[in-house]
Amino acid sequence: MKAIVYHGPGDKRWEEVPDPKLIDDTDAIVRVDAVTICGTDLHILKGDVPTVTEGRILGHEAVGTVDQVGAGVKNVAVGDRVLVSCITACGRCDYCRTGSYSQCLGGGGWILGHTIDGTQAELVRVPFADTSTHPVPDGVADEQLLMLADILPTGFEVGVLNGQVQPGAVVAVVGAGPIGLSAMQGSQLFGPSRIIAIDLEPQRLEAAKKFGADVTINNRLEDPVAEVMALTDGLGADVVIEAVGYPATFELCTELVRPGGRVANVGVHGEPATLHLEKLWIKNVTITTGLVDTSSTPKLLKLIAAGRIDPSPFVTHRFAMADFIDAYDVFARAGETGALKVVLTP
């Protein structure tokens, strides 16, 4: 089969690799029907995730058709159409029993495209298939479902829920890429009084308006701290969501939050950020971090099926899997291309 293989920072190749095989009784082999690229993949290619070793097949999001199942798989059958979650869950350990699948102690967590081969391939082995896939429901398109593999639950769980967005709250989102936009879309479910989007790229700020932003701030041209303070009587935002993953953006978030507010970090950080406790200690500020658990996926799926959330606008570019390298180029140059999410099909 063909797959995107990581050969060290900056080096990815669409090349021939052996087909995956069942290893454990709880595995399934899924033929990939639709796959996408994540910002985390770009962080890997920058060298920000050293636990990804040379030779690894990248990717952790897919919709596909089950091709083989192990003898221990009970809920998934050959021919089933499934969403492959970015987080794998053994379903038995203490963390999985509380819905904290990202911290799975039984061999799961974020492993696809990280510590085992991932989904940017024609076939993928999915461990713990019964608890790490979701059936494709009638009436939900593959592209909509694919957004549930990672970005929608990530923005919702790590941004909105960790940030404890409440009715009437002022929410500032730093970074209007797919994760930031997901956080804006998810925040609307809780009735905030205002959603403020902050980014450097005009195209992404335009997109933010479609995903719920009431105010957009280009921090290449404007002072975001001054602008947010002017909008909040000098107090700052109730909830600030970091959706970039750079030291400067994290530090900006801590300047934007009001006393008693919350900073929810979602971005993937590859280097240290300064925590200004000399300013924050007296402000009763809460800072949260997190890797998505995907425990919200069934709930978000119901909202999509009911038409309460529409992730279709995330998909801006479509490619054949044979053009994976071109898709990476377009996605990596999102500021120029306007790419939010790219979808690849066989």
What are the low-pLDDT stretches, counting only 5+ consecutive residues below 50? none
- What is the helix fraction of residues, given as a range? 25-40%
- What pattern of helices and strands is seen along the backbone? EEEHEEHEHEHHEHEHEHEHEHEHEHHE
Q: If you compute it from the alpha carbons, what radius of gyration comes out, rounded to the nearest whole angstrom?
A: 20 Å
Please outline the major beta sheet: 7 strands, mixed
Helix/strand-derived category reads alpha/beta
Which descriptors apply to this entry?
7-stranded mixed β-sheet, 346 residues, 13 helices, 6-stranded parallel β-sheet, alpha/beta, single chain
SSE layout and pairing:
Elements: E1 2-6, E2 12-16, E3 28-36, H1 39-46, E4 62-69, E5 81-84, H2 94-97, E6 123-126, H3 129-132, E7 133-135, H4 142-146, H5 151-163, E8 170-174, H6 178-187, E9 194-199, H7 202-210, E10 215-218, H8 224-231, E11 237-242, H9 247-256, E12 257-265, H10 277-280, E13 286-288, H11 297-305, E14 315-320, H12 324-332, H13 334-337, E15 341-345
Parallel strand pairs: 8-9, 8-11, 9-10, 11-12, 12-13, 14-15
Antiparallel strand pairs: 1-2, 3-4, 3-6, 3-15, 4-5, 5-7
Helix pairs in contact: 5-6
Describe, in plain words, how this protein is organized in 3D:
With 346 residues, the chain is α/β, with parallel strands linked by helices. Helices cover 28% and strands 24% of the residues. The chain contains 13 helices and 15 strands. Strands 3, 4, 5, 6, 7, 14 and 15 form a seven-stranded mixed beta sheet that branches. Strands 10-9-8-11-12-13 form a six-stranded parallel beta sheet, sandwiched between helices. Strand 1 and strand 2 (12-16) form a beta hairpin. It is globular, with a radius of gyration of 20 Å.
